[in-house]
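Reopening this one. Same input as before:
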Amino acid sequence: MNNQYEPPEIWTHDAENGGKWASINRPVSGATHEKVLPVGKHALQLYSMGTPNGQKVTIMLEELLALGKEAEYDAHMIKIAEGDQFSSGFVAINPNSKIPALVDRSVDNNAAIFESGSILVYLAEKYGVLLPTDGIKRVEVLNWLFWLHGSAPYLGGGFGHFYAYAPEKFEYPINRFTMEIKRQLDLLNKQFEKNEFIPEMN
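Same output, byte for byte:
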C-alpha cells in the first residue's frame, strides 16, 4: 500500500488537515469579522503579539525610548490563535493580516505601516537613529535587515511548524529546514567572530 502524498491537480482547502493552526490557515485574504481596533493615548499605536517577529518593533520602540526619543506608544494584543488579525479593524491597517502593524497618528491621515522590516525602517528614519544615512553603511544595515526578514522567520517558522505543529511528522521538510537553520546559525556565528553587532554601524 502506497501512503505517499500525491499533490492534487487542482488544490482545494482542507481545513481538517491543518493541525493546530487550521483555523487561521486559509487561502483567501480579507476580514472575517467586524471588530474595531482599540486606540490608546499616544501617537504610536502598536498592534502585535510576543512572537519572535512580533517582538522586533517593541524592542525598537524601547530602544528609541532609552535613547531619549519621544517614542511613547500604546501596545495592543492581537491574539493570532483566535483570529484577531482577520478583524475588519486590523485588515484596514494591514491587508496582509500579519502582525505586527503600527499606526502613527502624528501624521496627516494616520500612517499605517505593516511588515516589521518596513516598520523598523520607518521608525529609524522618523527619529533619525539606528540607521546610518551614509550610503554604504546604510546598505550594510539594510542587507542584514532584509536577510533577517527574508531568511530567519521563514526558516524558524517552517522548522517550527513541521517539527512541532504539523499533524504528521515528515522527514524531508524537517531535515530540509533543520539543515538550512544550521547554515544560517553558522553564518551568524561567523559574523559575530568579527563584529559585536550585525552589522557594525560605526
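So the earlier flakiness isn't reproducible anymore. For the record, The CA atoms of residues 30 and 81 lie 17 Å apart.
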